[in-house]
Amino acid sequence: MSNSTKTFKKFVLGLSFVALSATASLAQDYVFKVMASNGNVVQKNPAKRLWAGSQLQDKDLINVPDKGYVGLMHKNGRTIELKQAGDYKISDLAGKVGGSASITSKYANYVAGEMSKADKVDINKNHRKYSSITGSVKRDIVLGNVFAYFPLSENAEQVKEANAMYDGSEFVLHFYPNPEKNAGVEKFDTYFVSVLDMTNKEVARFETKEESVKIDLTKLKFKYEPSWVISVSKNVETFKKGDVTAYHVGLLSKDDAHYKSVAQDLKEIGEAETALDKLTQARVFEEHKLLQDAIRCHEQAIAMQPEVTTFKVAYDEFLLRNRIRYIEKAGFSEDIMKDDSKASALIIEEKKEEVKPTVTPKKGKKGRK
Questions:
Q1: Domain identity same for 102 and 64
Q2: CA distances for 16 relative to 11, 13, 26, 28, 106, angstroms
């Protein structure tokens, strides 16, 4: 072998070593990943705009503008949010993050990927063309004029299967017109809800002009098990005519193995102090197939950071991914978040006489029992 060949091989090996060392160095220096941002949040050394997915190293300095926001995930899965304008050293922020948690990292990394995709979407444009999934629902299913946010399925039983909930104290029922029967109709003037226990006895009913109603399932009466049939319709007249769509919802028992598994995961990821933490909780519930709980967490995250559109896009992706509502064309639910407190639950006491419909009281007034 000639000296020139040996020299060339040493040169190539040297470059490989340098490249590997540089890669290892970068991996070791990675401290935070950007999960969401609002405003012109920049890295100052070198100067560049930060987006969801951007990685930050210990030596980096970032700037948050006035009325800006950035949510960061530490490499151990913990999150931190910056809302005050100013410069921040990544090395200083790292010292404020708690200890590592493998379960947190597992869920948070998934959320980081979803937020990175959502951050690239322009919420003001149709980023994807979704075809109607109306045809995928079998025609032997009796569906009314009104739908609620529940998973859709091709199987008749699964369309109305029980939706278990971990926490039923803040169950929000969202309404929208059945697009198959009401093409082009965005909403109705009123919505009516009847809640039956497993003995077919009505335990609550609501009539509201809002597009959602909040129900505290923990206060509903039940027999045998905490499970109910929820029927939705346009109004009491259409309800009496049988123009309804029915859903099941139930609460997990604290003695149930499923409940204990979820509780353990939630304990390990810690309290949800930020909107990003709420998304991590939402992912826990989604993975455990507790979609109504996941809906609640997504909406709480949006309420905590209403100006950050990335959270709204992530919520829409969640609804689509889990077939929770019919989608005929692209579009985002910017107005999904309503003031759900306007529609308060009116719990029906046990009475022998027929239960009459009650109009939900206006905001600020309590309903009569």
A1: yes
A2: 9, 5, 15, 18, 32
Question: Is 109 part of a structural domain of the chain?
Answer: yes
What secondary structure does DSSP assign to 176-233, as a single string?
A: EE-TTTSTT----S-EEEEEE-TTS-EEEEEEESSSEEEE-GGGS--SSSSEEEEEEE
**How far is it, in rounded angstroms, from Cα 209 to Cα 189?**
6
Whether the upstream peptide bond of residue 357 has omega within 30° of 0, thus cis, is no
Rg of the chain over Cα atoms, rounded to whole angstroms, equals 25
First to last CA, the chain: 96
Residues 68 and 160 in one domain: no
Number of domains in the chain: 2
Q: Residue 4 falls within a domain, yes or no?
A: no
Pairing of strands 245-251, 162-165: parallel
Rounded-to-integer distance, Cα 92 and Cα 81, Å? 14
Domain of residue 48 covers 26-119
Helix (H) or strand (E) holding 92: helix 90-94
For residue 347, give the DSSP letter.
B
Phi, psi of 286 (to 5 degrees): -65, -45
Give 129-174 pLDDT, tens digit per residue. Answer: 333 333 333 333 457 889 899 876 544 444 445 588 999 888 999 9
Q: What is the pTM of this model?
A: 0.71
Long-range contacts at 265-271 (CB < 8 A, ≥ 24 apart): 265/103, 265/107, 268/101, 268/103, 268/104, 269/77, 269/101, 269/103, 269/104, 269/107, 269/108, 270/98, 270/101, 270/104
> Cβ of 312: how many Cβ atoms within 10 Å?
23
Tell me 89's DSSP state: E
Both structure tokens of 104: 């947190």
